[in-house]
Amino acid sequence: MPAKIKDKTVQKENAVQTDAPALPLWFAELSPGGTGEGFFEKGSRHSIMFVRRLRPTLYVTFDNLSNVNDDSPDRVPWGFKFAKSQSISHLGVFAHGKLWYRDPVLIERFQNLANEGFFEGYERVVFAGSSMGAFAALVFASLVPGSHVMAFNPQTTLNPELVPWEERYWIGRRQDWSLPLSDARGILGRCGPVSVFYDPYFEPDRKHFERLVGPNVTGYKCWFSNHKSAVFLRKVDALKPLMHEGLFGEITPQLFYQLYRERRKLPWFAGSLQKYYSEAGRDVMADRVRASFRRYKRRIGA
Question: What is the pLDDT of residue 67?
Answer without folding.
Answer: 87
